Amino acid sequence: MRCASPIALLLAMLAPVTGLAKSPEAMTAEGAVAGTSVHGIDVFRGIPFAAAPTGPNRWRSPQPAAPWKGVRVAQDFAPDCMQTPSPTSEAPLRTTPSEDCLYLNVWKPAAAKKGAKQPVLVWIYGGAFIRGGSSPASYDGTAFARAGIVFVSFNYRVGRFGFFSHPALSAEAGKPVGNFAMEDQVAALKWVRANIPSFGGDPAKVTIMGESAGGTAVINLLTMPSAQGLFRGAIAMSGGGRSLLPTATQKRGEQVGIDFAMKHGISDTGVAGLAALRALPAEAVRGSDLFADRFAHPSTYVGGYVAEGSVLVGQSDTLMEAGKFAKVPVMIGMTSADGGLTFARDKEALYASFGEHGPALRRLYDPQGLVPFDDLSRRLTGDQYMAEPARFVARHVAASGQKAWVYRFGYVAESKRAEWPAGAPHATDIPYFFNTVEERYGSLTTALDRKAATLAHRYVVNFVKSGDPNGRSLPAWPTYNRLSEAVLQHNMDAEATSTFDPFRERLDILEQVANSWANK
């Protein structure tokens, strides 16, 4: 008989005082783990799903985690991945980032019947692929577990650790490389498939959900051969749906890697140069401003995806147009004050950037010329990068015979309405989908905020459980199709209303823009 771990004994002693129960345990392929149990929810944090991507594993595909003996304590978050955290993040990290970061977390109902198989939700965080992690309080999975869902969050490499190419790396791997972040995501999903039954989850009922870069990742996972069969539903929040940010060619990616190496005095492009790159301090690889590094001359950060041909076999929108994507139900949408990207500094430059379509966009977005530039830019690029691409994905999902649901989240916390008069900014929908508004707004949370969170969360829970967000006593959310153009709008009164897309005319013009750019 295995003796209880010391931490389990301590928790048992504290249970009458703190509400903590006996430390729950689960068995993974690498060994047993002991988590915590609080008010009917078992939580396991910091479980390795791959080996540390350090030393010789820096810029390698995720390697198997080493097995361990006895019971591994899994009660604290492991470090989020190496990065420079944003001081204005909607989801601030609660760990000190480290290069050793390939860990995941599991929330599950403690009282689930033995042998029960519950649906699983896997969360993929955002952060422009240069920051983010699984530790933020807004990403807590308790509400999902309380609703009968096994919730999983995990870390994946970001920035130059997650996206990097170099001739020596291609030679070592025997193929082009560059998208280690996406390989981490697939490795985490494979861990879920292999291990989630030990936590009461059903590996055949996995839904993936991500926001911003995480939403973009969800859309790309739909098209990645290595991810096929690992999930049965997908939720993409503010993840776009078109490849508007260019994917670097392998040649370009490797040149950026060479230029980064040269910046650090490493000119060799063979084995010796690779060893020197891997010996660089993590802080040197991280850098201080990856946006500046991307647009520097020469560029020393590739900026995201690399077209290496095996992990990413093509642009996600091109693959969707060819029908090469997972045929699963999809929930997709954006916030009402989402945004995109432009280098224009005034209205005339903004309209000019759309070429022959500029006059039509001027008529639709600012016919009187009275909209302030910043507001105009946010509205137009938000539709360009978020709304129209989401519609693009929904149309292809529906055409494939699967169901798609499109939303716009427009609720703003009452304490933020003076600060955010234009609507719900990017990423502010997350605590509502998670039902963690009190984690985000603390004592400023109002009854109306809680009502909005309960509503949004219930749609997500229903989708994870059945592949359909609709449920008893919820406002009906029709599926999207080319005739109905149905969009569910979450409103400022904490209600939701399904309408014919009120911005269809704008999106039709932006669709023409996207098609003209794709054909160049």
Automatic annotation (TrEMBL):
Family: Belongs to the type-B carboxylesterase/lipase family.
Residue stretches making up the Carboxylesterase type B domain: 23-345, 378-495
Keyword Signal on entry: yes
Alphabetical list of Gene3D superfamilies matching this protein: alpha/beta hydrolase
A Pfam entry, by short name: COesterase
One MF annotation (Gene Ontology) recorded for this entry: hydrolase activity
Species of provenance: Novosphingobium piscinae
InterPro entries associated with the record: AB_hydrolase_fold, CarbesteraseB, Carboxylesterase_B_AS, Carboxylesterase_B_CS, Type-B_Carboxylest/Lipase
Signal peptide: 1-21
Domain of life per record: Bacteria
Keyword Zinc included in the entry's annotation: no
Keywords per UniProt: Hydrolase, Signal
Enzyme Commission identifier(s): 3.1.1.-
This protein's name: Carboxylic ester hydrolase
